[in-house]
Amino acid sequence: MAEQRIVRFMKHRKLIAAFSLAVVLIGIVSLVVRGLNLGQDFTGGTTAEISFAKPVDQEAVKAALEKAGFHDALVQHLDTISEVQVRMPPQKGHESNLSADIQKAVSFDPDNPATLRQVDSVGSQVGDELYTQSLYAVILSLGLMMVYVAMRFRFKFAVGGVVSLLHDVLFTVGIFSIFGWPFDLTVLAAVLALIGYSLNDTIVIFDRIRENFRKLRRADPEEIVDLSLTETLRRTFMTVTTVILVVLALLFLGGPALKWFSIALLIGLFVGTYSSIYIATNYALTMGLSKEDFLVAKGEVDDRP
Description:
- The chain is an alpha+beta fold.
- Helices cover 62% and strands 10% of the residues.
- It contains 9 helices and 6 strands, in the order αβαβαββαβααβααα.
- The longest helix is centred in the last third of the chain and has 33 residues, at 221-253.
């Protein structure tokens, strides 16, 4: 160990744990007080994409919709200033002829004809069911991850891994709550993908820690953890950099449909990499990680590489 330069990741682990706890608590407070800006996938409502022959003002479209009886509409430009997306809650009195009513409302300027390209509607009951099922999906995935890690390593590692994953989820969702960014099914998909990515990164680190504990019998647990993190640092850096390049391509080239999915993934990639180092392993050390946790018991299969 003396010949290798080791990065002392765990030197300030208590301070970093306090920082992480503070950030997560701020996110939880924001979720309780402000909640999430839920997309229409969860709340129900209508999304319409409209193309105009010429550039159009968002406020003019909103005023025309309001005049036609469509209330609380959110209008924003898409790829060009002649294309808009309209989002609005369920509208009473327009259920039977929704598309025709929207088309009539946005055709307010004869010199700038409008074409209704797409209309999607989600009922409020369906939205509530999706929201509930989404929570179940996150909770179930975290529970299964704990079982998997507990079977592969030890229970303190399993708890550390799930604490790390829970930290990633609360951090990412908390950011969306703090800034009021829209949270829809694509963002939820990013959160679930983040759970898988973060756990994979954590498993690689846990494997190296187990290997080094069995190989370096006399070393201090904190030193072994630092050595293991240093040895996996290059792999971690290369992996996260490669994925970030792909996500940036999605963000800048994928259009509005993938914008918030990409942003959620970007946040999650940084947080997931950080938590694998400073949350999962930190928890295991705090719970008294020692070489006894990695001794091969009688009748147990030694799965060392």
